[in-house]
Description:
- The chain is an all-alpha fold.
- The protein is built from 18 helices and no strands.
Amino acid sequence: MSSDSIRSVQKIGLWTTVSFVIANMIGTGVFTSLGYQLNVTENVITILLLWILGGVIALSGALVYGELGAVMPRSGGEYHYLSVIYRPWVGFLSGWVSLTVGFAAPVALAAMALGSYTSRIFPSLSPQNIALSVLLVITLIHALDVKLGARFQVVFTSFKVILILVFISCGFLLTENFQSFSSSFQSFRLKELYQPGFYISLIYVTYAFSGWNASAYIASEIENPQRTLPLSLLISTVIVTLLYFLLNLTFLLTTPAIELKGQLEVGYIAAAKIFGSAGGRIMAMLISILLISTISSMVFVGPRVTQVMGEDYKILGFLAERSKRGTPVYAILLQFSISFFMILTSTFESVLTYAGFTLNLFTFLAVLGVFVHRIKFKTAERPYRTWGYPFVPLIYLAVILLTLIYLIFSRPFESLMGFITLFSGIIIYFLNFWYERKKETTV
Length: 443
């Protein structure tokens, strides 16, 4: 079977695409970050505003990516967009970050969270061994067959959304005494929104929303991407924003903030309050299964970016190779290796902060790129235009810029590691330049 026929068979539709985006967004962040936010501020109103703002940011970004994806419908996400809009080396750095951080780090974080939740039920099992085992199994599934991976994804994403809806419903129906927000209302001041702690907490929230651009990475594998891509981004972001707000409201209404503060397994703690200790353990197991969907989605999407880089840069050419079943097997295995290493060597919070900072650098450049693209390519056909332009992209840019500035000063080590990652990408880029020049000279 030719490569063209393989790719025609492998196209995915709107709701499969939506399922991948939802699975990329919902997962590790929403079930782990609340405890870290409460370390910075215990005001419940501030916390809820953070999640609303996170939804606004994600929706603003999705509206812009809808235009970029429709006018440049090729897999690769920021890698492809930034190469066209700015320079190939900028796109390469974005692809390098996606390869080393953008998917490998969230896969590692989701696996770490899964191991932590599961160890609450089975204390004798090592969280790290659980994380590594699940990562291996899911990687094998996606390395074997694209369609198998897609069916696996739809099933687990449906389970994920249903579980969250059940959690929210039971939280409101079964809890007899809700936590009072009166003190938070009384103590809330607008100046809290300008404090460094607010933006540190926002990096956790933006990480929780970080999968909103997932379908942009697999545009070439989507049926009718000019229509499906922007629609999938909008539908997914609105659904997830609503679920996130209601889920965090449920956590805060059912469980005293002091018990959630600084804790990783906030879902387990809240579930124990709602269902009792036995029910809490069952819910912890279900959340662990839910996190499998998150890992699965990123294991599917991430290697598509790596594959496109392999097509464009000879030094990485082996990453573009597909198996007989059409899967980018070497790209999948490379991402697996990086995630595996992170699980073995890093802490959850340090990886989360590092990933949040580094990824936001390039989504910032991509959203800024909608202005640049309209100037450079005035005659380009745009099947979809950003709603609310120019105000919607400006909102995104302003909030993300403030967050990055605050993070550089308050989390210098993680920020420095992000810049080191960029520097290593520059080295690889120029090694590729030397490699291609050498091959041309040899020929």
